[in-house]
Design brief:
With 102 residues, the protein is mainly alpha-helical. The chain has one domain (5-101): Arc Repressor Mutant, subunit A (Orthogonal Bundle), CATH 1.10.10. It contains six helices and two strands, in the order ααααββαα. It starts with a helix and ends with a helix. InterPro entries: ArsR-like_HTH, HTH_HxlR, WH-like_DNA-bd_sf, WH_DNA-bd_sf.
Length: 102
């Protein structure tokens, strides 16, 4: 990783580490627009204030946007979600391996 790339990945990880940020993105991964209320239900357990904050941050980052039907991931958000999609099979394999050790 170059010196120029390090701050970029740090910025992305800082955003994604924010409470519920990944869950908001994950809830929108099917590319169907969701209203605020539906998104809140999809994420589960998130307060309206926290959801508003995450939406604002994710919109400023260019990962989601609001259209006539509700919130959607942008092309950049879709690209990120495609890359994160590989994490799911890894997580299943990882969790199974950890369960065997217990």
């Amino acid at each position: 990783m170059t010196a120029k790339e390090a701050p970029a990945i740090s910025q992305l990880f800082d955003l994604l580490e924010s409470r519920y940020a990944l869950r908001v993105l994950w809830a929108l991964r099917d590319e169907h627009a969701q209203t605020f209320r539906l998104l809140q239900d999809s994420v589960g357990g998130i307060t309206p204030n926290t959801l508003n904050t995450r939406i604002k941050e994710l919109r400023e980052a260019g990962l989601i946007d609001h259209g006539p039907s509700g919130y959607l991931v942008t092309d950049s958000g879709k690209d990120l979600l495609r890359r994160l999609n590989d994490v799911q099979p890894f997580a299943v394999k990882w969790a199974a391996g950890r369960a065997k050790k217990k």
